[in-house]
Design brief:
2 helices, five-stranded mixed β-barrel, binds zinc ion, 8 strands, three-stranded antiparallel β-sheet, mainly beta
């Protein structure tokens, strides 16, 4: 077992944590700001004293859009013009925003989607075999 402190603050580490069903970002110990995905250098104070933190995975819907023209990875999941999905910006309880797929709402009924709806993180398995990995999503509670 490697300890969390040993992993570099890279998108590869971020994805590795997702595969472990953990939503991890970095925290600047100098100015107390959180970053998701993780940053190795604090964009706020330019310090490099960062540590890993695990986010609660709870938040609220800040913005969204229905996706009808899906990227290849989502077409493989059965999404597309006939079966759109929602992509949203989630504001986590910790005050950090991240974009992700939104589950539990009908992308064809965008008028029923409420900004501010409470969300909880969900890790969605995508791909087959070697390319299998977890994607970040949030579900309406
Ligand atoms: Zn800082």
């Amino acid at each position: 077992m490697t300890t969390t402190a040993e992993r570099p603050f890279t998108s590869a580490s971020f994805e590795q944590y997702l595969n472990e069903k953990k939503l991890m970002g970095s925290h600047c110990t100098t100015c107390n700001k959180d970053f998701l995905p993780p940053r190795a250098i604090c964009p706020n104070c330019h310090g490099d004293q960062l540590t890993w933190i695990e986010f609660s995975g709870k938040g609220r819907l800040a913005a969204f859009t229905s996706i009808f023209i899906a990227p290849t990875v989502m077409i493989a999941e059965g999404y597309g013009r006939e079966n759109p999905y929602l992509a949203g910006v989630v504001e986590l309880d910790e005050g950090v925003k991240i974009s992700a797929q939104i589950l539990g709402l009908d992308a064809r009924k965008a008028e029923e989607v409420k900004i501010g709806a409470p969300l909880k993180v969900e890790f969605v398995e995508r791909g087959e075999g070697e390319s299998k990995k977890m994607a970040l999503a949030f579900r309406v509670e």
